Amino acid sequence: MTNPIKGFSKLSKQGKIEWIVDQYFQDKEGAVELLQSYWHDDQKVQKLHDEFIENTVSNFYTPYGVAPNFLIDGKLYAIPFAIEESSVVAAAAKSASFWLERGGFKTTIISTTKIGHVHFMYDDDVEKLRTFIEEIKDRFYTDTASITANMQARGGGILDIKLVDKSDQLENYFQLEARFETCDSMGANFINSCLEQFAQTFTAAIADDSRFSESEKAVQIVMCILSNYTPECVVRSEVSCPIEQLTDGSGISPEEFAQKFSRAVKIAEIEPYRATTHNKGIMNGIDAVVIATGNDFRAIEAACHTYASRNGQYSSLTHCEVKDGIFRFWIDAPMALGTVGGLTTLHPMVKFSLELLGKPSAYELMSIIASSGLAQNFAALRALTTTGIQKGHMKMHLLNILNQLEATNEEKEIIVDHFKHNTVSHSAAVKKFCEVRGIKSPEEIKKA
Ligand code: MEV
């Protein structure tokens, strides 16, 4: 029986571990040892990690892999991926090499504007409110001058503030909707600080204005927050080549490949069940680079899925056209990223990733990450429409099974060779392992 605890956050790290282990573990010593085995040897680095979040008791490793040969806008990148799923990095690298020989990825930053809202309730004359907001607009800018000074010096700032009437959808609901340019930073703190100041400016100004009655002045500010939906911060990455260059090695003709591939994309455009898996594969590529570069993958995920639903039905983020002998494949993805501030200056591996990428601007990083998503989708659709996905997956799965069984390198070599000509399954892999090791079942190893 476990007990609730008060003041867990106030316990020392050791105290927290003792409590967890005491409450939830049979093998208490083993649990402590495991947590400690994931601590970083360098205490400074460990302290940094401890302080990223709250109640830290250990670290949770994610593999960090690199996919080279990404030619993007004429520049060659080796892209870092932080991801636990096998095959993703291999797929990215394979697509990168394929397109390296066909002109690479070409990208366009469609727009870079971010949006935030002061959500509020107002129960009166809308026209009077509209006029008032126009009249006090300059105050929104002057009252946020100290917050925006640095951003303005870097070429960004507040672009626009307007009143949005949402009262037809929710009684008395209005927004102050503001647009921002945040340059190389993701800008969440900047935007939220501006929005909170707008709310203060607004409530103070309306309270001082004799045209409004006491009830009209009782504007209720519900909340001030940026939107992670960024349909005006969008990048396009595309690849294209003459159809005859779509040689695949799987035996399928370039024409048939182009046709099947574009049909697979069309299916994802009209069928939400498929679109979800299709976009999940894209996010394999996007999230992994977003994480490796210290950005917020939950924000990017949320934006991409909302964007994929923008026409009223969840649909593919990628599109394909086969026209006049040319195969064209592209992604449009919302991508609010930063290359300064936040984790980018704190996490040693994030700094490494950004250096590996040549210290990109946020706009360049948008292009890199969209290209990694497109590469991922190309690899997935290429496999799905030709050999099937399981061949590659099971190869990686086999290695995971063998690692779990603690097979030696020689054993792995023999078993991997065997499965080049045999179908991989968990039981078949275990059986072969036992045969190679000369045991009846893996239980024998545990007993020994
Ligand atoms: C697996 O993580 C991703 C795929 O399912 C994506 C797809 O089906 O397009 C292979």
From TrEMBL:
It catalyses: (R)-mevalonate + 2 NAD(+) + CoA = (3S)-3-hydroxy-3-methylglutaryl-CoA + 2 NADH + 2 H(+). Its EC number is 1.1.1.88. SUPFAM superfamilies: NAD-binding domain of HMG-CoA reductase, Substrate-binding domain of HMG-CoA reductase. GO terms for biological process: coenzyme A metabolic process. Pathway: Metabolic intermediate metabolism; (R)-mevalonate degradation; (S)-3-hydroxy-3-methylglutaryl-CoA from (R)-mevalonate: step 1/1. Pfam families: HMG-CoA_red (PF00368). GO terms for molecular function: hydroxymethylglutaryl-CoA reductase (NADH) activity; hydroxymethylglutaryl-CoA reductase (NADPH) activity. Keywords: NAD, Oxidoreductase. Belongs to the HMG-CoA reductase family. This is 3-hydroxy-3-methylglutaryl coenzyme A reductase.
